[in-house]
Amino acid sequence: MKRIEDTYEGRFVHGRVEWKGGKPPPEGARVEALGKTRGGKSRKRSVGGRVSAGRDIWQVLRKFEGKAASLPADLGPNLDHYLYGVPRK
By the 8 A CB rule, do 42 and 32 touch? Predict the structure, then answer.
């Protein structure tokens, strides 16, 4: 497989990338995204949350109890419908 190490810049807008200069990477290319602030500096974000020492995970999750009660019953199999508007299964 041909290795491509070019830099492409763009902005993430409404769920899509708008490539600077209009030229996207080649079809099938593996890409790596690096978030930047408006000033152009790189920013690092934590992927996971931290649990304070001495707190049980169930105590942390208890604040979410009952939050899913108002969600549609078919949300799991029809997630794409609710997120993107595709026809229901």
Answer: no
Buried b (16+ CB within 10 A) or exposed e, 47-86: eeeeeeeeeeeeeeeeeeeeeeeeeeeeeeeeeeeeeeee
Q: What average pLDDT does this structure show over 37-58?
A: 58
How many whole angstroms separate alpha carbon 58 and alpha carbon 54?
A: 12
Q: What Cα–Cα distance (Å) separates residue 15 from each residue in 24, 65, 83?
A: 15, 29, 11
Tokens of 13: 């807008």
The pLDDT score that the predictor gives to residue 4 is: 57
Q: Compare 18 and 88 and report the one with higher pLDDT.
A: 88
DSSP 11-29: EEETTEEEEGGG-PPPTT-
User: Which pTM value belongs to this model?
Assistant: 0.31
